[in-house]
Structure formats: structure tokens, C-alpha cells
Amino acid sequence: MICSTDVFKSMILQEFLLEDRLRSEYNYAEVASWLGNLVKVPASVAVEQFLASGVLVFVNAGLTQKAIAELVKVKNTTLVIRAVADVLASCKSDEDNYKSCCRSALCHAIQGSYDWAFGALRVAASKNDNWARHHHLYGLIHGAKGDNERALFELEKALAAEPYAEPRKRIEQARQVVQFLFIDLPQPQHVIV
């Protein structure tokens, strides 16, 4: 059985794949993670030897390897790489920063890191809240989280702001899914006492 949130997750993935060169940029995070996994054992040995030399003698063996392994997960390397991309884009223009933040939101959203995605979208909205892209992504992520009311609100804002036909079709498709879910959901029963 397909869950309604899965529909929105597939729409997020579709937006990710449609975004020009984003998949290749995402590969940088995967490569950084892969390289980190290659060096985590020798790096953790070196860090543990340094710490045991008198700085922090109470560090347990293996603790630094676990910490390094956590740091080099794709989820975390994506955060660093996209943060650098967003900072560099902010040096160019507000429009470039807006686009970069929306791209970052997509990278975080496909990993299920919705809070990070929302953070990137808040930065995008601070650049220009009248553009459609961040509202569209907000709507999809709210849908993926099962918050149909917020999803509908954001998708309607996106639809009102989107000037191009292809994105309008995708936004309208997502909006129709949310409306279908609202109609399909049981309405609360009011009890008269």
C-alpha cells in the first residue's frame, strides 16, 4: 500500500532530478563521504594517539572512529558542501543565493532531513518571498510530512507566483493530490452534549 506521504517524497525526488546539474553536485557529498570512510581508521588512530599523549587521556579507544564515521556520513557532508555553495552564491546576488538555497533544500529533503531543508527554504524566502520555487518545495515537504493543510497553503502560493508552464503543471499536480487527500480524509465529528 502506498502512503500519501510517499507520493510527495517521489515528487521531491522528481524536482531533485529535474534541477539542472544538482545530481552531479550531490555527487561531491557522496565522494567526500567515501573519502572520509577511507581515512576514518587511520585518522582516528592519529587523533587518539594525540589525545592520549596528555591532552585528553580519558578518551576511549574507538570513540574517535565512531565520531569520524558520523561526520563523514553523506547526510553531513551534504550539509557542509551545500553550505559552502550557499555562501558562495550569496556573494554573487540575492537571486543566486535564493536558487542555491532551494537546491540545498532539495538535497536535504531527499535524505529526509526536513528540518535542514526548511532552514534552507527560510533563507530563500528571506531573499524574495514572492517567488514560487521555495513555496513549491515547502508544499512538497509538508506533504511528505503528512501536513496537508500547510502543503495546500504553500502550493497555492507557489501556483499564484509561478510564471512558467512546466513548473505550474507540477505544482498543480501536487495541489490536486493534497485536495484529493483532504476530500478523502474523514471529517471530524462534532458531538452535541
From TrEMBL:
Gene3D superfamilies cross-referenced by the UniProt entry: Tetratricopeptide repeat domain
UniProt protein name: Uncharacterized protein
Source organism (scientific name): Iningainema tapete BLCC-T55
